[in-house]
Design a protein that fits this description.
- By secondary structure, the chain is mostly helical.
- The chain contains 26 helices and 6 strands.
- About 65% of the residues lie in helices and about 5% in strands.
- It is globular.
C-alpha cells in the first residue's frame, strides 16, 4: 500500500561553481592590488598651487558652523560641503592633510570600482572589466594633484549616472529614474558645469528613448543646439587665440557627430511620462534637501547663487589653461563617417560591410588609445576617442541587426559632453574628461572581438588568449603597486602637523619646514601671494581674512581685494609668503599693478628671508625699526 505521507522537501543550498569562485578571487585580487597602489600614491607629493589647502580652509570653517558663502568663501556648490562634512562628522575626524588624503584615496577606489561595474554591465566581459579597472586606477591619479577637490565627488557621481543608465536599459524602473535625477542634481550642486553637461547628455538620451512626437523632436533639437553652443559660450573671451579656436572646433565636431548618430539610431522607446516625472521630481527634491540645511544655518540664497554660479562669469579671460589639440583631422573624418553611417546604413546591402569596417576602426582606435595611455599622452587619447564616441552605437559584426541600448546611447553622449570639462582650464581637467573614454574603449574592444565569432577559430586559442590577457593585467597592476610603494618610501616624510604621512622630495620637505618654522617664529599671522593655505594648518594659525582663494589676483574683484587689504592692515606682525614662480603661473598676462591687493603687498612689504625662490616679506616699517 502506498504511503499517504508527503515526502519532506529537501533544502537546496546554492553552491558557487569553480568559474564563479575563480572570477570572484580574481576580482578581489585586482581590487587588493588597486588598494596597494592607491594608498602610497595618495600620500605622495604636494602641489605648489595648493588647491588642497584652499578646500581644507573652507571645509574646516564650514564644520565650525560658519555660514557657507556668506562667511565661508567658496566657488563650489553646497553638496560637496554636505557630503564631505558628513564624512568628517560620522568618522569623528579633524580636517587634516592625512584625513583629506585618506578620503581622496577612498573616492579614487570607488570611482575605479564604479567604472569597472559600468563596463561589466555594458560588455559582460570579465577581462574588459579588469582592463577598465586597471585603466581607471592609473587615470584617476589626477586626484593626487588636488586632494580634497570637488572633482573626487563629481567623478563618483558622474560614473554613477552611467551605471544607472546601464540598469535603466533593462526597463523603465521608476526608482532608477529617480536615482538618475538625484545624481544629476547632486552633480549640479557640486560643480554646476559638470551638472549641466550630464543633464544635457542624459536628457537627450531619455528623449531618444521617449515615443516620438512634435514636442519630443522640438525639445531634442533645442537641447542639441544648446549643447553645440556651449563651447562657444564658455570660450567667447578667448576666441581670438588660436588654441581656443582649435579646441572649439574639436569639441563641436565631436558633439555634432555624437548627437547626429544618437538622433538617427533606432532604439527601444521605453521611457514613459511617469519616468520623466520621477527623474524630474527627484532632481528637485534632492536640490531642496541640500539647500534647505544651509539656509537654516544662515546662508542666504543670493550669496549661494552669486558664489557658486554667477561669480564665474568673466573669469575665463583671467584664468585659463590652453588645450593643445594634436590634430583636427580625426574629428573631421569622424564627422564625415558619422554622416555616412546615418545616410548609408539603412541600406541592407551596405550595412554589413560598413559594420565590419567600423569595427576594424574601433579596434585600431582602441590600440592607439592604449598606446597613448601607457605613454601618458592625454591630449592624444582625447583626440582619438572623444570625437569617435558615436561608434559605440554601431553594432558588433556578430549581431548586425542589434539596436543600440539606452546604456550605449547614454555612454556616447555622456563621454562627449563630459569632455567639455577641460574648457577653459585644461589641467587635471583633461584626465577627468578622459575617464568615460575608458568604458568607450572597452565597448570598442568588445564589439571588435565580436568579429572573431564570425571567424572559425580554435576555442583553445581564444581561451589561452584570455588567460594571457589576465596574466598581463595582473602583472601590470602588481608592477604599479610595487612602483608606487618604492616611490613613496624613496621620498622624505613632510613631518608637519597633520601631514605626517605625506612623503615628498627632500628639497620640497626642507622648503616647507623652513617656511613653517619662519612663520611660527616671526609672525602673528600671514598671507600668501599666491595662496598657499596649507601653511595655516602647519603653523596652527588662523587666517587673517575670510576671503581666501589661490588665484585671488584673477578671481577676486577690486572690492573683494580691498576688503582683504583692510583685514591685513589690522595685523602689525603680518608676514607675506611670496612665490614669484607661482605668481607668474597664475597671472596669465594680467596687469598686477591694477590689483589693489598686489599693489599693497609690493608697496608695504619687503623681503626679510629667502630660500630657493620663496620669500618671507614683512612690513617695511618693521625693518626700519
Amino acid at each position: 500500500m502506498a504511503s499517504s505521507q508527503t515526502p519532506a522537501l529537501r533544502r537546496t543550498h546554492w553552491k558557487p561553481s569553480l568559474r564563479t569562485i575563480g572570477f570572484s578571487s580574481l576580482g578581489v585580487l585586482f581590487f587588493t592590488l588597486g588598494m596597494v597602489t592607491v594608498y602610497p600614491d595618495s600620500f605622495t607629493g604636494f602641489s605648489e598651487y595648493d588647491d588642497e589647502g584652499y578646500v581644507m580652509i573652507g571645509l574646516r570653517s564650514f564644520l565650525q558652523g560658519n555660514a557657507l558663502y556668506d562667511y565661508v568663501h567658496s566657488q563650489y556648490g553646497p553638496f560637496y560641503y554636505l557630503a564631505e562634512g558628513s564624512l568628517y562628522t560620522i568618522l569623528h575626524m579633524q580636517v587634516t592633510h592625512n584625513a583629506v588624503r585618506a578620503i581622496m584615496g577612498s573616492f579614487w577606489l570607488l570611482s575605479a570600482a564604479l567604472c569597472s561595474w559600468a563596463i561589466f554591465r555594458l560588455t559582460r566581459s570579465w577581462i574588459l572589466t579588469a582592463l577598465g579597472f586597471t585603466a581607471a586606477i592609473k587615470l584617476v591619479r589626477l586626484f593626487v594633484g588636488s586632494p580634497g577637490h570637488p572633482e573626487e565627488v563629481c567623478l563618483v557621481l558622474l560614473i554613477g549616472v552611467l551605471v544607472c543608465a546601464c540598469y535603466l536599459s533593462d526597463g523603465a524602473k521608476l526608482w532608477i529614474g529617480a536615482l538618475l535625477g538625484s545624481l544629476i542634481s547632486a552633480l549640479a550642486l557640486t560643480k554646476i558645469n559638470i551638472g549641466v553637461y550630464a543633464a544635457l547628455a542624459i536628457g537627450l538620451a531619455l528623449l531618444k528613448a521617449t515615443p516620438g512626437g512634435y514636442k519630443q523632436r522640438a525639445l531634442f533639437a533645442l537641447m542639441a543646439i544648446s549643447g553645440l553652443l556651449l563651447p562657444f559660450i564658455i570660450l567667447t573671451p578667448l576666441l581670438q587665440q588660436q588654441w581656443a579656436q582649435r579646441t572649439v572646433a574639436l569639441v563641436v565636431l565631436s558633439l555634432g557627430a555624437a548627437i547626429l548618430v544618437a538622433r538617427r539610431s533606432e532604439t527601444d522607446q521605453f521611457v514613459t511620462p511617469k519616468l520623466w516625472i520621477a527623474c524630474t521630481l527627484a532632481l528637485g527634491v534632492v536640490g531642496a534637501l541640500v539647500i534647505a540645511p544651509l539656509l537654516m544655518r544662515g546662508t542666504t540664497f543670493s550669496a549661494m547663487l552669486s558664489m557658486s554660479v554667477l561669480q564665474h562669469r568673466g573669469s575665463v579671460k583671467d584664468w585659463y589653461v590652453a588645450f593643445e589639440v594634436p590634430t583636427e583631422v580625426i574629428p573631421v573624418i569622424s564627422l564625415i563617417l558619422a554622416i555616412a553611417w546615418v545616410r548609408i546604413s539603412a541600406s541592407s546591402k551596405a550595412r554589413e560591410p560598413m559594420i565590419v569596417v567600423f569595427n576594424v576602426i574601433k579596434f585600431i582606435l582602441s590600440m592607439l588609445w592604449i598606446t597613448s595611455f601607457l605613454a601618458a599622452q592625454w591630449p592624444m587619447m582625447y583626440d582619438l576617442v572623444v570625437p569617435c564616441g558615436w561608434l559605440v552605437l554601431v553594432p558588433s559584426s556578430s549581431d548586425v541587426s542589434r539596436k543600440p541600448s539606452f546604456a550605449r546611447v547614454a555612454l556616447c553622449l555622456l563621454s562627449v559632453f563630459s569632455a567639455l570639462y577641460l574648457l577653459p582650464v585644461a589641467g587635471t581637467q583633461v584626465a577627468f574628461s578622459l575617464v568615460l573614454t575608458i568604458p568607450v574603449v572597452c565597448v570598442f574592444l568588445d564589439d571588435a572581438g565580436g568579429m572573431l565569432v564570425t571567424v572559425k577559430r580554435s576555442e583553445k586559442v581564444i581561451r589561452l588568449a584570455k588567460i594571457g590577457a589576465v596574466v598581463v593585467l595582473l602583472a601590470f597592476n602588481a608592477y604599479g603597486a610595487l612602483r608606487s610603494a618604492q616611490i613613496y618610501r624613496g621620498f622624505t616624510p613632510l613631518r608637519l602637523a597633520g601631514a605626517e604621512r605625506i612623503h615628498v622630495a627632500g628639497k620640497t620637505a626642507a622648503d616647507y619646514q623652513w617656511i613653517t618654522a619662519t612663520l611660527k617664529n616671526s609672525c602673528d599671522s600671514y598671507f600668501s601671494m599666491p595662496g598657499i593655505f596649507s601653511l595655516y594648518f602647519w603653523t596652527n594659525t588662523p587666517p587673517p581674512t575670510r576671503l581666501l582663494i589661490s588665484n585671488w589676483a584673477g578671481l577676486l574683484n577690486r572690492q573683494q581685494q580691498q576688503q582683504i587689504v583692510n583685514d591685513l592692515s589690522r595685523i602689525q606682525r603680518l608676514c607675506i609668503v611670496y612665490d614669484p614662480r607661482m605668481v607668474e603661473f597664475w597671472r596669465r598676462g594680467q596687469d598686477l599693478s591694477q590689483s589693489p591687493l598686489a599693489s599693497y603687498i609690493h608697496n608695504e612689504f619687503v623681503a626679510c628671508a629667502e630660500r630657493r625662490g620663496y620669500s618671507i616679506l614683512v612690513r617695511r616699517d618693521a625693518i626700519q625699526r
